[in-house]
Specification:
With 332 residues, the chain is of the alpha+beta class. The chain is built from eleven helices and twelve strands. It starts with a helix and ends with a helix. Bound molecules: zinc ion (ZN).
Length: 332
């Protein structure tokens, strides 16, 4: 459909506009306005029903900020730049659909947007949830909106408000199903019907249930902790010629110095165990024998044992081989 056809045909009721706007628009105190070159300027004036009406009629095109003034999100938009990424997003949509999670495909000039609507979420959790989906489904190249965990300055990221005219291409890109057919309960409807149908769908879109979001968030590995810098005090003075790598690590590296970068130890070398919910400083290092121990049952041993447990805790590969390899890169 071209913008001209829409201009002639469409009358949209305020109720439709208001419901649709509530789905996509996070704030009404300002709005992004798309220019002829496709860029946006921020207009610091209230977003009125009349401006929205003009968006759907095609005479102007608005954007939608991803976060409200309290840094809350109610949608996630994944942006594919090209056909390859768009196909990958299609696969993600299928994967979600198989778990009864509805996402919405909005193709564009090339690539397109995949939308997920959520209950109101702090931006940081919306992004963590989306990043985990992206990671698990191997689509790391797609762009994720919101782009900020929270707003510190400015208005944050924005996406073109759907069902408007792309100022650069002059086209409108309706939402489509997996076969590329515009979604509607009347698939053969005329322009007016299609726009109305889609506005009705997005006045009350299917939202990702909170339990699903919580399950995905539970799979997010904790942020990796900073690696210690190699400092001379890690080195003991033991002779290690001819020993295998693991024995060299055990002999050359001071467990006390290494562990001190991760566990705060008191002057008796005791601290809160990083491997269980410790209230009583069950964790200790014995510098003379160069080993650590947890009295609450987490075990103990060499630097390798410590780092295996640390990697396991962080959701990383905790095999002996991966652990020794990393320690060698860090320390030797
Ligand atoms: Zn412990």
């Amino acid at each position: 459909m071209s913008s001209q056809e829409r201009e002639l045909n469409v009358e949209i009721t305020p109720l439709f506009i208001d419901s649709f706007a509530k789905t996509f628009i996070s704030r009404r105190d300002c709005y992004p306005w798309q220019q002829a070159d496709g860029s946006y300027i921020s207009v610091h004036k209230p977003l009125t029903a009349d401006l929205l009406q003009r968006h759907f009629k095609g005479s102007i095109t608005l954007g939608a900020y991803a976060l409200n003034s309290a840094s809350m999100a109610q949608w996630i938009c994944l942006d594919a730049d090209d056909e390859t990424q768009w196909d990958q997003l299609g696969e993600l949509a299928d994967t979600l659909q198989a778990q009864s999670i509805q996402s919405y495909r909005e193709p564009s000039r090339r690539g397109g947007h995949l939308w997920l609507f959520t209950p109101p979420l702090p931006g940081i959790f919306a992004r963590r949830f989306a990043k985990q989906l992206i990671t698990e489904n191997n689509v790391p190249q797609v762009e994720l909106y919101p782009k900020q965990d929270e707003l510190t300055t400015g208005l944050g990221s924005l996406v073109r408000l759907p069902l408007g005219v792309h100022r650069k291409s002059g086209q409108v890109y309706p939402f489509v199903n997996r076969d590329g057919v515009p979604i509607s309960s009347h698939p053969t409807g005329d322009t007016r019907t299609l726009l109305h149908e889609q506005m009705a769908i997005f006045a009350d879109p299917s939202r990702v249930p909170l339990p699903f979001i919580m399950r995905v968030l539970a799979r997010v590995p904790p942020d990796p902790l900073p690696l210690p810098k190699l400092t001379p005090e890690f080195r003991t003075t033991h002779a290690t010629d001819g020993l295998p790598l693991s024995e060299r690590l055990k002999s050359q590296i001071s467990v006390l110095e290494f562990v001190s970068h991760y566990v705060q130890l008191d002057d008796r070398n005791l601290g809160y165990c990083p491997f269980h919910d410790d209230q009583i400083r069950s964790f200790g290092v014995h510098p003379d024998q160069n080993y650590w121990h947890c009295f609450a049952g987490c075990g103990g041993g060499s630097i390798i044992d410590f780092w295996m447990k640390w990697r396991e805790r962080n959701g990383q590969d905790s095999s002996f081989k991966a652990t020794v390899t990393e320690l060698r890169q860090m320390l030797l």
